[in-house]
Design goal:
This protein has two domains: 87 residues, SH3 type barrels (Roll); 72 residues, SH3 type barrels (Roll), CATH 2.30.30. The protein has one helix and 15 strands. The chain is elongated. By secondary structure, the protein is mainly β. The strands form four sheets. Strands 1, 2, 5, 13, 14 and 15 form a six-stranded antiparallel β-sheet that branches.
Length: 188
C-alpha cells in the first residue's frame, strides 16, 4: 500500500510539472527598477513629511519619519506588478529582444510601462521588453506592416513603486509615497 501511494504522489508531481502557467507570477517584483524615464536613485529632498516603513507594506512598522526639508538618499526601489495588463496581436508576430513568436490572439502580458513606449512583457514564460504604439500616429506608411503595429494594448497593468531611502542618521526605510520627494527626475 505505501508503494502505491508513493507512485500516485510521483504521478501527481510529474503531472503538475508539465502544466504551463497562464501568466506571470503575481505579484511580480522588479528589484532595482525605476518606473519612469529619467527616474534616478540619489539624494532626494523631502517635500512632504513622510513616514518610512521597515518593510514594503503599508501596515509595516514605521522605521523613521522624514521631516519637511530633510534630505534622504534613495538607495534602490522595487516596482511590483499587482495586476497584469494584456495586449494581443491581430496576426502572428515576433516580440522582444529574445524574438519570441506569438500567435494571433495569444495573450501578451504587460508587467509595466517603460520609457519611450516600451513595455516590460511576459510571454510563454519569458520576460522581455517590447514597443507597442499607444495610438495610430506611429502606424502609418511603412510602419503599418510592422509587428509593433499588429499589437494592441487591451488592459493596463497595476503597479506599485516602493523606494528604499536612508536618512542622515543612517536609518533606512521604505515608502510608496514617492511623490513626497523631490530631485527624483534626472531630466529636470
Amino acid at each position: 500500500m505505501p508503494m502505491k501511494r508513493l507512485l500516485l504522489l510521483a504521478a501527481l508531481v510529474l503531472c503538475a510539472c508539465g502544466k504551463t502557467q497562464a501568466g506571470p507570477p503575481i505579484p511580480f517584483d522588479e528589484e532595482g527598477a525605476c518606473p519612469f524615464q529619467c527616474c534616478t536613485y540619489r539624494d532626494w529632498s523631502v517635500e512632504w513629511a513622510t513616514d518610512l516603513h521597515a518593510d514594503r507594506r503599508d501596515d509595516s512598522p514605521v522605521a523613521f519619519h522624514a521631516a519637511l526639508d530633510d534630505t534622504v538618499t534613495a538607495l534602490t526601489g522595487v516596482v511590483t506588478t499587482t495586476k497584469v495588463g494584456r495586449a494581443t496581436a491581430k496576426r502572428q508576430v515576433t516580440v522582444g529582444s529574445k524574438r519570441t513568436t506569438v500567435a494571433a490572439g495569444e495573450p501578451i502580458y504587460l508587467l509595466r510601462h517603460l520609457p519611450g513606449g516600451d513595455w516590460k512583457i511576459w510571454v510563454n514564460g519569458v520576460t522581455d521588453e517590447q514597443y507597442i504604439p499607444a495610438g495610430p500616429g506611429y502606424c502609418t506608411g511603412e510602419q503599418q506592416s510592422s509587428d509593433e503595429c499588429a499589437m494592441t494594448v487591451l488592459e493596463q497593468p497595476d503597479v506599485v513603486w516602493w523606494a528604499k531611502v536612508r536618512d542622515a542618521l543612517g536609518r533606512e526605510g521604505w515608502t510608496r509615497e514617492v511623490d513626497h520627494f523631490g530631485n527624483i527626475d534626472a531630466c529636470g
